[in-house]
């Protein structure tokens, strides 16, 4: 596990949130955890990884759309029968392809809802249908298991998670908080999510060069950086292992 200096990290969050407060803006911004790796990542196939957080990134009034298998009425009826909260529209896969097939209509759908969920059984089919915009702007649908016995808990689990799909490059951002939370809640989310985030980085702990937090409009605050000394120690350990042979 990465040894995070909690005092330094809390100070970084305080500085970041103070920076946002000074702008006197009511707009909610995403707080990103930026992961830099030693070696570039290049994974041919991978699925988004859910990272449970202590505090949800969703704000009151968030409008959510759920993509389902066909027929969509089956799942609409399921949500109604179980009195499921947190979903405002259900769109079946066939309807998604037919009604929102053009770029303009897909863009309208993208703008109409604040967040999207999807039946995990059709997750792999969505990139070709939704297009690059959903994924480029990090509005990719959150996976849910619609066969779960406690469906409301499953929906809430998804809404209280962030997602990472680190399959290419050497620098990747993960939504870890928003400025609608406070600095203490943002810190909680980091510490809660970090173990799963490390597992989700190809190469794991050994491939992590640094961790930083930032918003899209702020400077980056470094909360972890692998030192030259650590590199030297690891190289010495490798040499010792080879000497045994």
TrEMBL record:
Superkingdom of this protein's organism: Eukaryota
Pfam families: Ribosomal_L1 (PF00687)
InterPro entries found in the cross-reference section: Ribosomal_uL1-like (IPR023674), Ribosomal_uL1/biogenesis (IPR028364), Ribosomal_uL1_3-a/b-sand (IPR016095)
UniProt-recorded name of the protein: Ribosomal protein L1
Organism: Lichtheimia ramosa
